[in-house]
Amino acid sequence: MHVSVWQGLVGQDEAIRVMQNAARATASGVADAEGSASDMTHAWLITGPAGSGRSNLAFAFATALLSTGPDTLDATIAQVRGRTHPDLGVLTSQKVIISIDDVRSLVTSSHFSPSIGRYRVMIIEDADRMPERTSNVLLKALEEPPERTVWILCAPSEADVIPTIRSRVRSIRLRMPSVQEVASLLRAEHGVDEVVAERSARLAQSHIGMARRLATSPEALARRQETLDLVFGIRGVAHAMQAARRLNDIALEDSAAITTERDERDRAETLRNLGVAPGAAIPPALRSHVKQMEDDQKRRATRSVRDGVDRILTDLMSAYRDVLMVQLGASHEIINHEFRVELAEAADRLTADETLTFIDSITVAQQRISSNVTPLLALEALLCTLI
Amino acid sequence: MAVAKANNRGRAKAAAVIPQLSWSEVRPAALVLVSGTQAFLADRAIRLFRDILRAEDPSIEISDISADSYTSGELMTLASPSLFGEPRLIRVSSVEKCSDAFLADAQAYLSQVADDTYVVLRHGGGQRGKALLDAVRRGEGNGIEIICAEITKDTERYAFAQAEFTHASVRVTPGALRSLVTAFADDIGELASACGQLIADASAEVTEETVDRYYGGRVETNAFRVADSAIAGRAGEALVLLRHALGTGAEPIPLLAAFASKLRTMGRIYGVRGGAGQLASAHGMAPWQVDRARRDMDGWTEHGLAVCIQAVADTDAQLKGAGRDPVYALEKMVLLVARKGRAAA
């Protein structure tokens, strides 16, 4: 159907076919398209590993549903990309959790009838970040949806949403794209050369967003390099504590780099919306607004640091997976080719048992970070298992 | 008087021309500014002021306003003369959070203070309303200022307690005072009520024995003292201190943070040679912290440290929802740290 809608989504042909059918079923009118009426439903859950392109696919699907015909397709694509389409509601959270008020307002707006297209499309990225109470707010809307509203939820796996939601949606599972697929996407989109594309895709373990960052930002690559160097270099408790501190700093710097600029922009925009002249004092009546914005920014920073530490842990996981591979003699599937020497050294120093224990500890550390343990403490505890 | 000296400490108020007094020296004045963060002493000063005025004229009419929810005109209404002309006391609380309307009204009031009216302004510290305070201190409104600063030193607490007993004409031995002050090291209000209790019950003289009978076994402690004794290997003492800390209002998370911070410092300098100053600057710590951690290191092994650091992270997770009983999780961790990370015998 629309080639350009599904562009840049690699390795998800199966999922795309399902969505195309659904969009086609609605385009041709449900009543007369026999057999294809069942292709469309009112609520979808797109699941797949991090970096497989869940949200991108969700937005492509939304575009296909919102589009009114080939003539206006370009405009629809642009509107969806700018998140300005009048029939599109998006809930995306840059905080640790999605708040109940956000969902409530989304549910309210889902009852408006579509103004341009055939559908109103509501997308919740990161549906796994909804606490149970918040999920329950959504249930009613999912169960008895207004006639022309389509919900699209995204989550890493079906287990991440509560069962009552799971039973009300049709699920589309994405698979992990292969390294080659991601590499060719990088070549096509960013014009990077073959070696860089392959390396970025491989080091990112096919996580598309991460691969993009590694391919386009030398700092990201250097940071990854430093992370692994630090951890491979740990020889004693003092080393481990130092490395933990450095890793924590890397995550903080990373987060600061991302959030500082955005925070300032947000602040300027909020003040302009409130009618405060640049540089003027904030009147007492408006302070609560500004305070709320600052609180939001703080929550966003928390999330950003946690994400940074999580990235570091993922890198470590890939490295120690390689160590285990070397130890077990399966060295043809190494991810971190660049660290051959260090990998071999680590494989000699540790037993396969110890490597497995460390990999388990990485998982534990990831869980701890998501349950609000101080990131530095979690990192220290993790690296101490190496001693 | 020792308390007065203590309360005037550390505040440069060159501009003030009005008398600045301690809480016990309060005397009738048309305007009394009670400033400072020590809420307990401020309450006392205001109560004392009321009692003095009431003794002068029992028909005094007392009204309270809160400056943060003040609306225009309230002060003038309360301060305007009444039919029978009784004196009026107006107590204004939370001037540090006052509304703009209050600032305007109060400044207007300063220039024409009403007859037979006493106004008490309670300012709990901070920048808000500074213009008003400065005006009062310059002598507008003919007021006095009562300074109620935080009491931080043990000697000041000692003097405070002594003054309490002297005031009530109850004799007290120095030993009794010392143990009282150690037992109530945190809150001056608690210290005062403990003194009050002893004064009310005591016959002739309060001795150490009396204090012990009333408040024996009570130890004020903080997170770092718990961590110190656990790290030094004194399991029993650490557990007792942990219980005391929890019993006197310490929260589990800061307690844990103290352990994490101490073990972190020890971990960072374990087996690292070099001068304290050099290490301290490399790790962003103070030299005394390095020295302290070196002394703490006695009897610790690298493996033990690693085990304890892992246990602290695990306990953090337990406190933050992974476990059901925070106190049990803490006790388990304290015992492990006191064994210096070795398995239980």
From TrEMBL, chain A:
It holds the Pfam family DNA_pol3_delta2. It comes from the Bacteria. One of its GO terms (biological process) is DNA-templated DNA replication. PANTHER family: DNA POLYMERASE III SUBUNIT DELTA, REPLICATION FACTOR C / DNA POLYMERASE III GAMMA-TAU SUBUNIT. This is DNA polymerase III delta prime subunit. It comes from Klugiella xanthotipulae.
Automatic annotation (TrEMBL), chain B:
GO terms for cellular component: DNA polymerase III complex. Its EC number is 2.7.7.7. It comes from the Bacteria. It holds the Pfam family DNA_pol3_delta_C. Keywords: DNA replication, DNA-directed DNA polymerase, Nucleotidyltransferase, Transferase. It catalyses: DNA(n) + a 2'-deoxyribonucleoside 5'-triphosphate = DNA(n+1) + diphosphate. It is an enzyme of class 2 (transferase). GO terms for biological process: DNA-templated DNA replication. GO terms for molecular function: DNA binding; DNA-directed DNA polymerase activity. Coiled coil: none annotated. Residues 220-335 form the DNA polymerase III delta subunit-like C-terminal domain. Belongs to the DNA polymerase HolA subunit family. NCBIfam families: holA (TIGR01128). This is DNA-directed DNA polymerase.
